[in-house]
Every structure is written in structure tokens, then in C-alpha cells.
Amino acid sequence: MPVPDARACLAGAAAPAGRPASRRRLLVLAVGGLAASVAGPLRAGAAAAAPPVPVEPPAGSARPPASASPPAPLGSDASPVPPPPRGDRAWRTAFLAPLQGPIRGNPQADDAALRFADLSLRQFLPLALPGGRLRVRLANPEGDAPLQVGAASVGWRRGRSGAGVQPGSLRPLSFDGARTVQVPPGATRFSDPVALPPPAPGGVAAEPADLALSLFLPQRSPRASWHPVGGRSSHRSLAGDHVDAPDFPEPPAAPPDRALYFVDRVEVEAPAAARLWVAFGDSITDGAWHRVDTDGSWPAQWNHRWRRAPGAAARPPLAVLNAGLGGNRLLSAGESAPGRLRYRDEVLALPGAVGVAIQIGINDLGQAAPAQLPAVAQALRDGWIALAREAREAGLRAVGVTLLPVGGSFYDRPEVEAARRRHNDWLRRSRVVDAVIDADRLLRDPRRPAALRAAWTEDHLHPNDAGYARLAALTVQVLARAGLEPPRR
Q: Where does the record place the region Disordered (predicted)?
């Protein structure tokens, strides 16, 4: 089934000519791009279209019911500690998805639209790092009630589209030995480790296959914890438990979306020497406007270039994780926590992390009132200094990505452009980071430097697949010139 076209979803999103962009449009469209508009979630299996997104300003077989395990402390991982990997193996994050809450004012992504009951979800997770056994982390950070999962399974995706799973690859997920699990509000739960057979051939050489995660939600789900724009299509079933079905039964004419629900991490048993870089930012990092079911985002294409580099097979594994989240600001919250609060869990605390590429700030500038913009711009610079300092204190290298031009978008205001240029000039000369990836100079129109080149954008705010490819190539070049990654031979 086709994913709704992003251009149609964003129709009417631009501000009228001659007027500043309304702040009521900004949160998801600003740096969510096609975020929740493409993610047209369904209520208990009913079909839903994906209209333009109005956004408020930021301020199987029957199974027993889920066990009523005692609540975990808020924000904790209530999972039992699995046996450590043997020898020179270690748990390394291979998939990361920052989560947020529902979107106020959007009938396709508000609280009522993102409740599910008596259906199964099948979501596809691209793994940046291959490994042996794996474990999945379910998450309920935004929940107003426990998340009840009646059954769960994992397997390898069949092909690069559709909801099918490779025959023979499906394996049940257990949690402390049980098929059912309850995740309290604010908590996370890791599954027990599970080993999958090798994926069938047919994918891209040296690339892990997509992991298929299926969840049966037997009763009304809590307030959604979701990632509006994933890189893969996501599917809902007809009523009932279908997590063990290789061919997933979907409602007629129900389009898939791009969202991920109640999962924020997959870890694999990898060589202990495996190293991780994290791309940290907003929807430009997340990959808004890249084609669904492709690895078109900037971090994914960066990861591919490293994995296919000459001599890569002879070096310890090296992977790039995507910690981008649409609409995210560094300094203040909207439907998602501010970047400064996401940073520790999604970057600094990751075992095996050795570097971070920071790309965040255009939402802070674009959504600031004119009178507040000078103070916000200074706070943004201070925030970047703190991110770089914390990375170094944690033993990571930090590189910075200049802010892209926004001419022609709803952020197109003279004071925003001036603040953006000042931020980029400061970043280039400040030496606050170990290297600068100058996305601004790379992708701007040389005749109109306040705008992206038309061939590399669809909405004047985010790159398209071709733009992301250029940014990935530049990233690899800059890191190599700086002697950061991969190691010189």
C-alpha cells in the first residue's frame, strides 16, 4: 500500500505571502516535515487519511491477559538484567527512536487518534549494526496508564515494502520469561535476549535486514509514546493477535504510516570493540522528506558509506545511530522534551558511543518571538557549548553541523535569517567542536544564499534524498580529514 504523498500532506502549510508564518503551524511541520501528516494513525484498525497538519504553538491464538507486575519507579527500566554477553561481546544499540507525546490540535495525531485496542502493530526497525542475539526495549514515557502487551514477536522483513516477514524467521519475544508484559507510565522494559536465524539473501550487501517487531495490544493503550516519522512503513492489523502471522492481515484500504509506537531501542550482541556515532538533532537529522522504506536520511546514508568503505570488514564495527526528532528544540519543550534533556540518554549514556554530530537549533530560532530572538540565539550558542563540553567529559568527540537556510519556508523572516547566519559564523570560528560539517555552504543556493538549492529540497526547509546524500558524503569527508573516523590506515 502506498504511503500518503508528503506534498499533499503539506499542502497549505506555507504562510501567506507578505505575512510572517503563523506559529500555529510550526511544531511538526517546522522540523517534523512530513511528520504526523504522513503518519495517519488509525483508531482500533479503522482507516484514516492524512490531511494537512494544524499544530498548536509549542508551550493469532488466545493468550492470558498481561500480568499485573508491580509498578517500576518512574523513568526506570523494570527489566531483569540479562546475562552479559560472553567473551569479547557486548550489548550495543543498533536502533534508536526518540519518542514524544500526541500532537494537540491534529485530529490524526492527537491523544484520541493514537489509542489502540484489540489489534496488532507491525513495525519495521532498520538496524545500523549487525549482531548475534538482540533485545528490544519497549517504552511508555508519555503514558497515563500502564502499557499492556499481550504478545510480541520479532523476525526479518520480507523485501523492502509491505508487512510480510521472512518465513521461518519469526520468534516470540518474552519478558522475564513471560509472553505478556506491563510497562508502567514513565518506564521502559527490555525483552529477554532472542536469537534470530540469519536473514534470507536479497538485501543490500553488508547491510542488516529490517527487524520486524509485532506487538498485540489487547486493551486500550495509554497516551501514546511515539516517533512520528520513522524511516519505514508501519502497519496495523485486523482485530486480534496476529504477531505470529508471516502475512499480516490489514484492514482493506488502510494505508500504512511512518510512525513508531512504544519502542525506542534495539540492542544487539556485538563485538565489544564496536563503536557508535550518534547524529543528534531535529527532523533534518530524523530524515523528513526522504522516501519511505529507503535509507535516505542523512545518518543512514552516512552509515552506509562507512560500512561500505574499503577495509571496513577488517576493522571493528562502526555504526551511526539516528537521534533526530521532528520539531525538536534544544532549549524548550513542545510535544517532545527539549534536546538538552534528551542528550544524556540518547547520546552520552550509550555504551560504545565515541562521537556525536550535533544538528539542532533552527526551531529555537524560527519559533522565537522577534523580541526574544537575541536572547534565544545567545542561549542556543551557550547550549551548543554545553553539549560539546558534556560530550568531551564523557569521552566522545563532538562535531557540529551548520544550520540550513530556510528561505521560502514558514521560518522565512529577516531576523531569523540574520540569527541563523550569526550562529553559523560563530560555529565556524569558535572551535567549540572538533570539526564543522558546513551543511549551509554545501546545500544553499549560490544565487540565493538564504535558501536551499531547489534540486535538493521539496519544502525549502528540509533536504530531499539527494540533499541528504550530499550531506552524508560531506560528513564522511570532514571526519576523515579531521582524523576522527574511520581510523587512518
A: 49-90, 223-250
- CATH topology for 271-484? Rossmann fold (3.40.50)
CA 209, CA 215: separation in Å to the nearest integer?
A: 19
The full DSSP string for 334-345 is SSS--HHHHHII
Domain boundaries, the chain: 91-270, 271-484
Measure the CA–CA gap between 232 and 307, rounded to whole angstroms. Answer: 20
Phi, psi (rounded to 5 degrees) for 372: -90, -10
State the greatest distance between any 2 C-alpha atoms of the chain, in Å, as a whole number: 65
Residue type, 281: G
Give the start-end residues of each E strand in 170-293. 171-172, 181-183, 188-190, 210-217, 226-227, 234-239, 260-261, 263-271, 275-281
Find out whether 191 and 125 touch, Cβ atoms under 8 Å: no
Q: Rounded to whole angstroms, what are the CA distances from 361 to 70, 217, 219?
A: 40, 37, 39
pLDDT for 45-92, tens place per residue?
333 322 222 222 333 333 333 333 333 333 456 565 666 667 789 999
Distance of CA 297 to the CA centre of its chain: 10
C-alpha to C-alpha distance for 10 and 365, rounded to whole angstroms: 22
Q: Which of 15, 9, 21 is nearest to 367 (CA)?
A: 21
What does the pLDDT look like over 172-231, one tens digit per residue? 999 999 999 999 999 999 999 999 988 876 544 445 679 999 999 999 999 999 999 888
Strands 397-401 and 435-437: parallel
CA distances from 310 to 306, 315, 472, 477, 486 (A): 9, 10, 17, 14, 10
Which amino acid is it at 156?
W
Kindly report the number of other CB atoms within 10 A of residue 394's CB atom.
16
Is the bond preceding 486 in cis, omega lying within 30 degrees of 0? Answer: yes
What's the rounded Cα separation, in Å, for the pair 218 and 421?
A: 51
CB of 48 closer than 8 Å to CB of 234: no
Each residue's pLDDT tens digit, 364-418: 999 999 999 999 999 999 999 999 999 999 999 999 999 999 999 999 999 999 9
Helix, strand and coil percent figures for the chain, each rounded to 5: 25, 25, 55
* Cα gap 243→216, rounded to integer Å: 6
3-state secondary structure of 325: coil
CA separation, residue 203 to residues 76, 206, 210, 326 (Å): 37, 9, 9, 28
